[in-house]
Amino acid sequence: MNEVIGVIGTGNIGKGILTHLAKTNYKVLVSNSRPPESIKEMLAGIGDNLTAVESRETIDNADILFLAIPWNRLAEFAKELAGSKPKIIVDATNNIISVNPFKLADIGNKSTGEYVASLFPEHRVVKAFNSLAAATLIKDPNTGTGKRVLFVNGDNLEASAKVVALISDLGFAAIDLGPFQNGGKLQDVGGSLSGIELIKEK
Questions:
Q1: Which of 5, 104, 111, 146 is 20 to 30 A from 47 via CA?
Q2: What is the mean pLDDT of the chain?
Q3: How far from each other are the two terminal CA atoms of the chain, in whole angstroms?
Q4: CA atoms lying within 13 Å on the CB side of residue 55
């Protein structure tokens, strides 16, 4: 794929995603809530294909956009993204709004993927990269006995297929759980696949 990849967020999950993207030939634009200069040194230490830019540049140029931001920033970011060219959004968020005490945002009976998709109706949202702990996500996807598994689900088959291909490019094995209604809650916090490390044997 020749798509430009954008990553919004450089916290633990964002760094994990960037560590694997740095091993590919993709052009990767990276932004967070601070000026680009604040993350240039960090990105240089990860890989040469990662470029720190203003979030507007990432939004305007990315074909596939990773969201690795805190849950409470999603609504604000949705306003920033409104009116931009349609793109695939890889939603790596979880609806955690407090760690101590631990608390999840109330999103009714929706999966987090469904909820995030409702915030970005002009785009194709695919849920992925949210089920593994950051400390596991950043590890080499090849364990020696096989590849670590990442789960994918979304309502647009073409978008999900592209994310599955991207996951393969990063060295992971992907399992597509189908539409949000079918598999969305399985990889959400508290779901049966959340925090589960699976290895696809060679």
A1: 146
A2: 96
A3: 25
A4: 17
